[in-house]
Amino acid sequence: MSTEAEHDHGIKRWLFTTNHKDIGTLYLCLSMMNFLVAGVMALLIRSELFMPGHRLLAPDFFNSMTTLHGLIMVFGVVMPVFVGLANWQLPMMLGAPDMALPRLNNWSFWLLPFAFLILLSTLFMPGSAPNFGWTFYAPLSTTYGPPSTDFMIFAIHIMGMSSILGSINIIATILNMRAPGMTLMKMPLFPWTWLITAFLLLGIMPVLAGTVTMMLTDRHFGTSFFTAAGGGDPLLFQHLFWFFGHPEVYVLILPAFGVISEILPTFSRKKIFGYRFMIYATASIAILSYFVWVHHMFTTGVPLAASLFFMYMTMLIAVPTGIKVFNWTATIFKGSLTFETPMLFALAFLFMFTVGGFSGLMLAIVPADFQYQDTYFVVAHFHYVLVPGAIFSAIAAVYYWLPKWCGHMYNERLGKIHFWLTAISLNVTFFPMHFLGLAGMPRRIPDYALQFTDFNQLATMGAFVFGFSQLIFLYNIVRTVRGKGIKATDRVWEGSHGLEWTLPSPAPYHTFATPPHIE
Amino acid sequence: MTTDTGTERITKNRRLVLKLSLGVVMMYGVGYALVPFYNVLCKSLNINGKPIGQTALATGAIDESRTITIQFLATRNAYIPWEFRPKIRTIRLHPGENKQIAYFAQNNTDQAMIVQAIPSVTPGSAARYLKKTECFCFTQQRMKGGQAMDWPLLFHIDNDLPKNIHTITLAYTLFDVTKSAKKVADAKQGHL
Fold first, then answer.
1. What mean pLDDT, rounded, does chain A reach?
2. B:57-116 residues touching chain A, CB 8 A cutoff
3. Does CATH number 3.30.565.10 belong to domain B68-183?
4. Contact criterion met (CB < 8 Å) for A206 and B27
5. Residue from the list A172, A240, A306 with its beta carbon closest to the beta carbon of B34
6. What is the pLDDT of residues A111-150, one digit of tens each?
7. What is each CA distance from B95 to A393, A406, A493, B131, in whole angstroms?
8. A269 to chain B, minimum CA–CA distance in Å?
9. What are the domain boundaries of chain A?
10. Nearest CB partner across the interface for B1, out of A180, A220, A243
């Protein structure tokens, strides 16, 4: 961070800032805080599941924990961390002085802390916090939802507004603010994946806003969108939710693809293999993601023809995703690899995200899905794509760009310890869940049959190691930001390419006031 | 690309923001449009077992070559303390033949309640051939505490019923709408 004295200081700097680097930092800090909060919730869930029987948490509180853990991890960790990275990196990678709409940028951030305060305040409300799972299916969330559900609805409205504004800003920055000579097809892949993600967000966040508004009017104003008694249909909720929800999972993972596409070439000392195909593949994934939502609903009695259509569409997504995995593999093939912490996380992403992709394919098969639906197999699947997918790439991105942001290298030894503890404990936590699911353990229950005990205990132990390992990460960031560690060079990494590495480290408060020239 | 001056860029940004905002508003509309779209789709593709609304009595020929078994079911949603059952469990009839049966309903509470019965037809593909001329499900039913009543159901099976369907199940779920009926009435009068 800059030490120049040309901006406000103290709390005013952060409240009124329109600087993309400050706002990026704010997003990253919020995301880290939420990561710890939702992580504690995960550990509470795992503690309850350490042994069969009702041990620690009341079942209702357990349900609130699974609900809030999911909502916060999705909306409060993965989405903000990538918006934070976009804020820091997009202007520096595109040669722009700032984001296109700096004031709007300030507002899109400052909506978020309030949204999460509202969401967390439900924990202290009479009745209970939202307790129907992060997918808040009607009628659980409408007819039977606790009073605090309305606060969740408003929190989601605010988060939606924030990410719509953020997306508009990102699109405007990428389309209008590039340095002269930087055509779209010369743009690095991280901005590319974000451009596509931002369009996805603009397409789905309004639908989610509409859906929660329908919930609200169903709950209080006598409409019957999801109430069968009034001529509505609870199943409609699932259609609307997953029309948002499936593209949403690509919102969570596409920017991660962008990060990995920056890191792998740097530490392989090669250019990314198949740059154009990476873009086409990302765009195809985004388009296909709008036509697969029913694969979350195979067991609701959808007609055979629809099941088949959505099954094949889902499997089709494996093709562009396969292209991406192939291209990443080809990028590291015969490269001169070094294994600094960002690279370790990127390589782990490559392996373990693919594991999550494969279990996704298994879930896409209609007859098999009837067995897997609502079991721990699903939990294993989406944790494999989100943790070593989205979270690992966010961690890799922080290690990768942190020296550029604050001018010092992070502690490599601590980074490596963090990596190995995280990667091993992650597999100890989530791999047994595949077996639990196949053996029939259902999701979202605080108690389970005796035969599931061993694997659950393994998962809980893994989860605790995973959770506490993240404190090493936090410590490493704090000490780097405070100036401990070797001074970073401008290029930071031997194999790095791109405009951000032509800037001094730490990056000055204002960069590219005069645009650079790209050949 | 930024070969343009500052003001040009601002106009460009404004124009883009306007377009994108329009897109957002449109997608919000699409979210709501999905509701009727979904219902139309279910009806026209004949899925989801949603029966069609009120139809006229059958006046055409009776197809005596076929006999269809109709099974009647009744479910009370959640905790309604009502009695609700078909007076006859199964009947057999020919396509094109009008038939009247009755459901028995009794409000076992001591307060007036408003209920709504929601039909569902299995198999879903038979839904459009089950034609009801009179049904207690067409409107909300209000009954005083302790009141009992036979609710009539007059229907026929269309002659076009696919040949492979021999049994149709008609299930009604009874919902308590006393509260939401009040909410709707309040909302219509402008009270929240």
1. 94
2. 77, 116
3. no
4. yes
5. A240
6. 999 999 999 999 999 999 999 999 999 989 998 899 999 9
7. 64, 80, 80, 11
8. 29
9. 10-502
10. A180
Q: Could you tell me the CA-to-CA distances from A356 to A70, A350, A377, A397, A487 in Å, in that order?
A: 18, 10, 11, 20, 38
3-state secondary structure at position A188: coil
pLDDT for the residue B2: 47
Asked if B149 contacts B72 with a C-beta cutoff of 8 angstroms, the reply is no
**Region of residue A133 (left: phi > 0; alpha: psi -120 to 50; beta: else):** left
Higher pLDDT, residue B4 or B144:
B144
Contact A209 B17 (CB under 8 A): no
Residue B1 has pLDDT above 50, yes or no: no
**What CATH number does the domain located at A10-502 have?**
1.20.210.10
pLDDT band at A2 (very low <50, low <70, confident <90, very high): very low
What is the model's pLDDT at position B187? 66
Cβ-Cβ pairs closer than 8 A, A with B, add up to 114
A163 belongs to the catalytic site: yes
Q: Is the pLDDT of residue A281 over 90?
A: yes
CB contact under 8 A, A168 and B180: no
Domain residue extents for chain B: 1-45, 68-183
This complex has an ipTM of 0.87
- Predicted structure pTM score: 0.90
Give every CB contact of residue B185 below 8 A, 6+ residues apart in sequence.
Answer: none
